[in-house]
Amino acid sequence: TNRPGPLDLFDLDDLVGEEERAIQQTVRDVVEQQIRPHVAQWYDEGSLPARELALELGKVGLLGMHLTGYGCAGTSATAYGLACLELEAGDSGVRSLVSVQGSLAMYAIWKHGSAEQKDEWLPRMSAGEAIGCFGLTEPDAGSDPASMRTRARRDPAPDGRGDWVLNGSKMWITNGSIADVAVVWAQTDEGIRGFVVPTDSAGFSAPEIKRKLSLRASVTSELVLDDVRLPADAVLPEVTGLKGPLSCLTEARFGIVFGSIGAARDCLESALRYSGERDIFGRKLAAFQLTQAKLADMTIELGKAMLLALHLGRLKDAGRITAAQVSLGKLNNVREAIAIARECRTILGAAGITLEHPVLRHANNLESVLTYEGTTEVHQLVVGQALTGESAFR
Ligand code: FAD
């Protein structure tokens, strides 16, 4: 049969360049060969072979792919988004690994780091030989990172520069237990600053958070900093204040605008396939009007999400995307993706609740995606503030 897939119906090919399409296809192939055959088992076991995967993804050039220099591919933002889409069609946990590596940990060093920090970490991170994590959230500071308690103080030294000593803890940190380097944000006398912390530093530990019901094919950890002593040049020199971590989050959030579409597309393809095979009341499930109404409505939301993502990609490539625009993209696309995943689950009936099909795995993953990188509510407040000029955060 030559029926179009849900996104084919929109005929969006002209909106994507040839090179971008080739990158997307490469990532799609990697997902089909290296992720899809194993991901249900990883999810079931609550584990991810992150080291092996990082090396494979590094080989294809997916880690920090939109950055330039240091072995990074320097692709368009749109190409990076399309890669996120295909990775998340595999699993949101795999996309999270890539987002945190490229858009949070690497981007923080690339944008705000010293030449020495970049030389030391970026080439190995882009190759997947070193894994990074990004520690902003704390047990008592999530949506309000300014209230963080982790503190870095200078320990005066004879040369007047002094080491840094870090104390505190971070929570819900993707890649934490497997990371070689952690970008940790902490209060200092000068405001919030970022620190490049090798994870073998004395006093650093990263216990893994277990018993998750979402993003199970992803490592999530606590970071404990107990008198972690770092040299004076461990601080990211180029930024002070909350704008440091927020600049990185805008990067990663942009990837989620696209990524969430991948999870939703995978669910919709699964529901379409299932409804075409399932006989019920003597006909195909796909032949019933209620089923078709669901499929039609979901396809329209998916296409609208894709149009929004491509538009935001072009704005970013033109260097004029705003944080509020990324917020509204993340808010809309993740909210629609999780609605699609849940609706697709109804089409699969009981079969939809197992790992034989990807839909409930995606739906459960999207619960995390709805919350991290700014919750839905926080993005509503960002968009609300852009519209009204009034901040309703506190
Ligand atoms: P809270 O901030 O306590 O929010 C609780 C509820 O209150 C939410 O519904 C929220 O929307 C709502 N709320 C907050 N403010 C307002 C307001 N002003 N008005 C009305 N309602 C409000 N963090 C990192 O730093 N690095 C990572 O790598 C990372 N990875 C993660 C991976 C996973 C799987 C998950 C689940 C989280 C991860 N996070 C990470 C943390 C994530 O960014 C936070 O969970 C998120 O910022 C929300 O913080 P919180 O969970 O403390 O919720």
Automatic annotation (TrEMBL):
It catalyses: glutaryl-CoA + oxidized [electron-transfer flavoprotein] + 2 H(+) = (2E)-butenoyl-CoA + reduced [electron-transfer flavoprotein] + CO2. Its cofactor is FAD. It comes from the Bacteria. GO terms for biological process: fatty acid beta-oxidation using acyl-CoA dehydrogenase; fatty-acyl-CoA biosynthetic process. Residues 18-129 form the Acyl-CoA dehydrogenase/oxidase N-terminal domain. Residues 133-228 form the Acyl-CoA oxidase/dehydrogenase middle domain. InterPro entries: Acyl-CoA_DH_CS (IPR006089), Acyl-CoA_Oxase/DH_mid-dom (IPR006091), Acyl-CoA_Oxase/DH_mid-dom_sf (IPR046373), AcylCo_DH-like_C (IPR036250), AcylCo_DH/oxidase_C (IPR009075), AcylCoA_DH/ox_N (IPR013786), AcylCoA_DH/ox_N_sf (IPR037069), AcylCoA_DH/oxidase_NM_dom_sf (IPR009100). Pfam families: Acyl-CoA_dh_1, Acyl-CoA_dh_M, Acyl-CoA_dh_N. Pathway: Amino-acid metabolism; tryptophan metabolism; Amino-acid metabolism; lysine degradation. SUPFAM superfamilies: Acyl-CoA dehydrogenase C-terminal domain-like, Acyl-CoA dehydrogenase NM domain-like. It is an enzyme of class 1 (oxidoreductase). Its EC number is 1.3.8.6. Residues 241-387 form the Acyl-CoA dehydrogenase/oxidase C-terminal domain. Keywords: FAD, Flavoprotein, Oxidoreductase, Transit peptide. Belongs to the acyl-CoA dehydrogenase family. This is glutaryl-CoA dehydrogenase (ETF). It comes from Nocardioides agariphilus.
